[in-house]
Design a protein that fits this description.
Two copies of one chain form a homodimer.
Chain A (H helix, E strand, L loop, with lengths): L5 H22 L6 H8 L3 H8 L2 H21 L9 H16 L8 H9 L5 H26 L9 H22 L2 H14 L3
Amino acid sequence: VPRRSATQVASARADTLTAAAELASVVGLEGLTIGGLASRLRMSKSGLVGRFGSKEGLQLATLDLAADIFRRTVYQPASTAPHGLARLNAICDAWVAYLGDPPLPGGCFLTTAVVEFDARRGPVHDAVKKVMQRWLTLLEREASTAIENGELPADASPQDVAFTLNALAVGANCDYQLNRDPDTLRRARRAMATALSG
Amino acid sequence: VPRRSATQVASARADTLTAAAELASVVGLEGLTIGGLASRLRMSKSGLVGRFGSKEGLQLATLDLAADIFRRTVYQPASTAPHGLARLNAICDAWVAYLGDPPLPGGCFLTTAVVEFDARRGPVHDAVKKVMQRWLTLLEREASTAIENGELPADASPQDVAFTLNALAVGANCDYQLNRDPDTLRRARRAMATALSG
């Protein structure tokens, strides 16, 4: 058997992680097992262990991919808008669109991961916390710029703005996943607009 | 062995359900198994099957109890406030206090149940949906009264108000469970106040 090129190895790894993220978005990161993924991919368990080391290694790599999908879908389309209020509005547009048509079948992967790992201790909990903190910090920075620009009131709190936008998205995800009512998305966007009107 | 009285049977059932709700608030309703609960309670599996019929019966009864705990902790303390804005504010006070000191160890049971069952079909999904709908309808009714009373703008939407308050609570629960930062609770209450200021 010829040795596979580095590109082939990387691409096989990416395909495996995509399948892992799709599975975990429905059964949860904790429900994601080496055995479950192996049988879905018709791969050997030892092949997966070789690739990710352990269930925890697989969970961490899957979370990384999901965070990356979130960034590509929600942050990247907004990143051409000027910093401050315009960028926050562009993020909210992309975010609500993402919630209505999530790239992974179980809805927002990160919300599910937060609810699953908030009370568990360990490396996956820490990684989930870090992903969320990074996102809230990014929102806070844009809110600070909006305040400096005079686009939000001088006494507005960047942390409050970031918290509120994120809570509205999390709440909309739960509501939309449960009821599939497009009004939920319109409501979330309107509430975000109110939070951004000062 | 003397037959147990109806009161004894009811009380044993209540104790079992309390243990089930405590367990499920950490491992999830889907993680709640007849076997897991039996070993925790040092009971026989057949005794639990006799009491609840099946895992699904146990899940439904546990969800009922959790909804009841929510009503007693969040709705009941507020139910002496006059209908409309005063009652909505009293609900928000009790709600944020509940999120900061949840009666079940894993945080808001209903949020976890929504995230767990949004994509699964079946009687537990339907029951979760019904509990959430009942709560949102109650909030909408109070918002309608607040609009009639002139305490909220005439063009406010009761559905928008209910959605926003619920989203802020869901988002605060996720954030607080993950980070245990009391600022989260203050932020949530402030954002609720903003949503209720029209």
